[in-house]
Structure formats: structure tokens, C-alpha cells
Specification:
By secondary structure, this protein is an alpha/beta fold. The chain has helices at 26-36, 45-50, 83-92, 104-110, and strands at 2-10, 14-16, 40-44, 60-64, 78-80, 97-100, 116-122, 130-131, 140-148, 158-165. The strands form two sheets. It has an eight-stranded mixed beta sheet, sandwiched between helices. Strands 2-8 form a two-stranded antiparallel ribbon. Helix 2 links the parallel strand 3 and strand 4. The protein is globular and about 45 Å long. The model has no long low-confidence stretch (mean pLDDT 95). NADP nicotinamide-adenine-dinucleotide phosphate binds next to strand 1, strand 2, strand 3, helix 2 and helix 4. NADP nicotinamide-adenine-dinucleotide phosphate binds at residues 7-8, 15-16, 19-21, 43-47, 50, 64-67, 70, 81-83, 101-106, 109, 130.
């Protein structure tokens, strides 16, 4: 099973403010939907609240919270009290790929254990209160990039990037 992060971040790594997204970018929404459709997606309690406490349709939503007795209030949503348990639960679904869907806290906790990062880089410097961690370039390499220019529906230029974890190279034993 592949563990992947999916995120849209500004040039200064802002991903949200006041529990809101920082933009409305239909092309990114389409990419997010197509990439995650039918698969498990793990998110933090605050991101789930930012979605209006409604699950993403067509995906297995898993929400993590440490609050004792936390419940999402929706029978379609699974919840766990740790990220590790959320990943274990997702594994049981036998999916080819499991997504980490944010927000800032969850990305920070999972970046070094994921295999792939789907990053929509939004070309703007924006204020935020939730951020994506700096991608460690000694751990990940960008393997794909598709630039999309701003238009009437998109306020900013974007770059759809895929970052893959660099495979460890066996030491030369001579
Ligand atoms: N641009 C994007 O791609 C994108 C994607 C997703 C979200 N966002 C934005 O990100 C913002 C939310 O991010 P955030 O950093 O504030 O919050 P978050 O990561 O969504 O959620 C944080 C909460 O998750 C729970 N949590 C975190 N680590 C946990 C662990 N190891 N085990 C169990 N529970 C854990 C805790 O909930 P409790 O406090 O209940 O214990 C914590 O308060 C919003 O503005 C949202 O719109 C942007």
C-alpha cells in the first residue's frame, strides 16, 4: 500500500486561514477529486470541521482526534485517536493508495512516513495560520510538474507536482 500526501500550498507554504481554504481553484479541486476518488483519506479534526463536518463523498473518510469520546457525528466517517491507528485502519481497506488530506498538523506528522507528495504549488504569497512543512529535498525528488496559467476561473498560476521519496541506495560493501 502506498501512503500519499495531497496538498495545495502557496509559495510560503500557507494552506489555510481561519479554518478556510485560501483560494478557489476549480482545476485543483478536480485534480484532488480524481486522485482521491474511491480511496481512503485521513484528515485532522480541524480539517474535517473546515469541511463543515461533512465527509468527502466517494471516499473512505478517517478523522483523527485525541479528544476523549470524539465522534464526527456522521456514521459514514471513521475516527481514531492516533495517526498510526488511522493508517492501520486504512490498510485494512485493501486500497492501492491511502491519502493524507491535511491539515497542517497532520502533514507535519506524516511527511517523513509517506511515499509520495502530490503538491499543487499556488504561485502567491499569502497569509495563513496553517502551513505545509518544507519538503525535505534530501528525502524527496520532484518527478513530475505541470504548470497551469491563471485565467478567469483561477486567480493564480499553479504547478501540479509529484514528489517521490528517494529510494535508499544499498551501501557498497566491497
Ligand atoms: N490547502 C490544502 O491542501 C489543505 C488541506 C487540508 C486542510 N487545509 C487547511 O488546514 C487548516 C487545518 O489545519 P490544522 O493544522 O489547523 O489542523 P488539522 O491538522 O486539520 O487538525 C489538527 C487536529 O487533528 C488532531 N490530531 C493531530 N495529530 C493527531 C494525532 N497524531 N493523533 C490524533 N489526533 C491528532 C487533533 O485534534 P483534537 O484537537 O480534536 O485532538 C488536532 O487538533 C484549515 O484551514 C484547512 O482549511 C488545507
Amino acid at each position: 500500500m502506498k501512503l500519499s500526501i495531497i496538498v495545495a500550498a502557496s509559495e510560503n507554504n500557507a494552506i489555510g486561514k481561519n479554518k478556510q481554504m485560501l483560494w478557489n481553484l476549480p482545476e485543483d479541486m478536480r485534480f484532488f477529486k480524481n486522485t482521491t476518488w474511491g480511496l481512503p483519506i485521513i484528515m485532522g479534526r480541524k480539517t474535517f470541521e473546515a469541511l463543515g463536518n461533512k465527509p468527502l463523498p466517494g471516499r473512505f473518510n478517517i478523522v483523527v482526534s485525541r479528544r476523549p469520546g470524539y465522534t464526527s457525528g456522521n456514521p459514514e466517517v471513521q475516527h481514531t485517536d492516533s495517526l498510526t491507528k488511522a493508517i492501520e485502519l486504512a490498510k485494512k481497506m485493501d486500497a492501492k493508495e491511502v491519502f493524507i488530506g491535511g491539515g497542517g498538523q497532520i502533514y507535519k506528522e506524516s511527511i517523513l512516513i509517506c511515499d509520495t507528495i502530490y503538491m499543487t504549488r499556488v504561485f502567491a504569497f499569502l497569509e495563513g495560520d496553517a502551513f505545509f512543512p518544507e519538503i525535505p529535498t534530501d528525502v524527496f525528488h520532484m518527478t513530475y510538474s505541470k504548470k497551469v496559467t491563471a485565467d478567469q476561473k483561477h486567480a493564480y498560476d499553479m504547478d501540479f507536482q509529484t514528489w517521490k521519496k528517494i529510494k535508499s541506495i544499498p551501501e557498497h560493501t566491497g
